[in-house]
Please model this.
Amino acid sequence: MWAAEFGNGGVVEMLLEREDVTPGVADKKGRTPFSWAAGNGHWDVVATLLGRKDVARDAKDKDGRTPLSWAAIGGHESLVRMLLEQEGITPDTADEGGRTPLSWARICGHFGVVGRLFIWHVTSQRALTQTPEKRRGGAIKRRLGNQNSVSQSVGSNSSRDLSLAEPSETSQRPSKRIRRF
Model:
């Protein structure tokens, strides 16, 4: 356990050769060697453990945090990127406090990790919801071709209209007072 936690890749590899060593065993806090290595940014140990079938990639500790959560908390952007590319890792898993790896990275101020996780969320959602036609730009062509519906909504006189329409000749100069909706 300590070899993975402190990034001693040689000792980890030597221990993994033994038959009596089980790398998926958790400590008192529920953290596995994989979780410790990911949280402390030990790229080589994480890569070694990912190569094994007996390592749970998405194992939760007693607080419900996954190795990806710990990597996000630690601000290890390259590890986060590597983990996002792996099978068996769920990036939007919330811990016992309701925090995901993305929210942990934001709280800890690791904006590179925030960007990486945000891009993953956007692209994974896009991949789930888009048809092949939309991926080729068909939706944009349809929207540009349908200008009438856009101009009708812009011309409405509703107090909730937040459009960017050109002011008409009779429109008045905006007042300095902020209008609440």
In short: Residues 30 and 62 are 5 Å apart (CA to CA).
